[in-house]
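Example record

One chain of 294 residues, shown exactly as stored in the release files.
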Amino acid sequence: MSILDSLGSKELVVVTGKGGVGKTAISSAIGSSLAATGRRTLILEIDPRESVHQMLGVPPSGGEIVKVGPRLYLQHLQPREVLDQIVRERVRVEFLIRRVLDSPVYHHFSEGAPGLKEMAVLGHSLILVQGKVPKAPAIDVVVLDAPATGHGVSLLLAPLLVAEVIRQGPIAAMTAEVAELVASAERCGVVVVTLAEEMPVTEALELIAALRDRLDRQPEFCIANALYPPIPPDTRAETDDLFTSLWTDRRRLNDRELQRLAEGWPGPVGETPFLPLDRGPALAEALRERLGEL
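Predicted structure tokens for this chain:
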């Protein structure tokens, strides 16, 4: 099954991996690919640095939903804003809303409760596909450019953590719905991005093990990104050409780590090449074309 077939019916696609492996570029390519198949897709970013817009060639979202192209949207989300909006929807009285939002107790709770911010992100994804976000376009699937590796697992574990702390009220109700979404392999998919290098592959395998052991889930796909070109059979093992030497050394490292990844993860692995392109729409489009071949 191709990556687009495996993700084609999901409501939420969580893309995670070690920092620096090209996770944001792959998230952009997946979002663009799903939109091209006809699904109304929103790429959701929560990194404070806000960089997905650079890949797609649009202005920063500033928290708003930005239309990128046909059936493709982008939003940069601050989790605290989601929690504040829940307060506004439930309290409704402006004077009381200000009292709650300005309260030190609320600030401490919203910043310190385990899993609450992650829960807000997942909850926002859910209500987007449910069509419950005021003035938002109709969305079929959210592609979440998730935090790096360990934080990505924490995000998916958030419904379980929050359920232990909050058992009543609107957040508890939302938690139950989000837990159902994340637990469903039919509705929620996970893509792990790595480089074919020692540390990224180690973290990818640890992430896959954590998903299995703590969530009883496995990724739909693992993508080995930025691979050096294969070495032609007639290339000498030793050469005085520094460029060729670097290329062959890096590719042999790629091959060793791809083998280790295959030994530790029996599921599908897609390979995307190292592309000499600046961060931007050209890179996203080249990766989108490659994903269509996987």
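Notes: The two ends are 9 Å apart (CA to CA).
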